[in-house]
């Protein structure tokens, strides 16, 4: 599941001219995926990440369209960086065979700045904004305009063993201390989360920085800031990495290995996405009965954390031959009915707040109130068209976390992010 954050290292593509040239090789074999010729029912090509039951949503939307259009689901690669490369190459070549795009929340600004996706206006915009949570909506805007419709969101939780810890810790220091005490007692003690050099490490740091009141970028997204709050977050990340409570595999850990390690009984705590819940119910139901969830700990015990959100935004290609039908198709796929279906059947949290109150969500999302609590006060990753470059340099400088020197690392990050914003010194 996720996105996310998050799940693969993100790299900025080669310059657009080179990407456009490379895309020409892709266009011919994909001609069969075109949007249809003149006359007849338009085919709306939906390029979307793998999601087990999304075809059922597509089928329902096609039935509702009553012949006005037909959506065809074109499955993108599983890895986020491969999804992005495919879409960037084809859009750079002005491929008219793409209509509706499922974008990671960190890509919307980049695609909008390149003029690859259309602005949502009028009734389309009003319908998307109605009832949608503010955090996901922020990821869908660029320069004050709406360029995508949030389809699903995502947010990490703290998962903890109730047989080891009576109450969830409110701060990272409390969690580290509790884990150290368990270690001294010879009990499972590890705090498991993602520390490999990829987007997951950036997500962890962004959560710490936002929870400390820090800013990586200026409000307009054009300048590197790295203020006192971000330095405090660096100090917290290093303290965690050197506390003796992480897994030996921490610096190589990504989402699913973290899930499996916790599931095996090694950890007392896990910071990870909600997909771990149904997996644990199936793989280790005995352990699952001892696991509860809570808001991710904050930097200060009395200040609630701000947790980084992920998810997928629906955008309409600037080169679509059928923009009106594409907007209608995107609205249908992400409407409240289908967000609930996808939440219950595919484990992707809704972006429309009212969906959480639906009784059908109770069984599939027993942690829904905690998810919603975090979503109402979220951390959003830096909003800038240069995010992929920024993520690449941040993950490199933050890795390994045990080597962080807070003030020096903050200065290094500030310089590297400033370069990334000007497209300097970043590998494609």
Q: Which descriptors apply to this entry?
A:
single chain; 428 residues; alpha/beta; 5-stranded mixed beta sheet; 4-stranded mixed beta sheet; globular
Give a short overview.
The chain has 428 residues and is of the alpha/beta class.
Task: Tell me what you see in this structure.
The structure is a single chain. By secondary structure, the protein is α/β, with parallel strands linked by helices. The protein contains 19 helices and eleven strands. Helix 2 crosses helix 4 (80-92), helix 9 packs across helix 18 and helix 10 crosses helix 19. The radius of gyration is 21 Å and the shape is globular. Residues 5-33 have low confidence and may be disordered.
Task: Describe how the helices and strands are arranged.
Elements: H1 4-7, H2 16-27, E1 43-48, H3 54-65, E2 70-75, H4 80-92, E3 100-104, H5 108-113, H6 122-129, H7 134-139, E4 141-142, E5 145-146, E6 149-155, E7 157-161, H8 172-184, E8 190-192, H9 199-211, H10 228-241, H11 255-263, E9 267-272, H12 276-283, H13 285-288, E10 291-294, E11 309-316, H14 323-333, H15 336-346, H16 361-364, H17 368-376, H18 387-398, H19 406-421
Parallel strand pairs: 1-2, 1-3, 8-9
Antiparallel strand pairs: 3-11, 4-5, 6-11, 7-9, 7-10
The total strand number stands at 11
- Distance between the amino and carboxyl termini: 26 Å
Structural class: alpha/beta
The helix content is 40-55%
- The quaternary organization reads as single chain
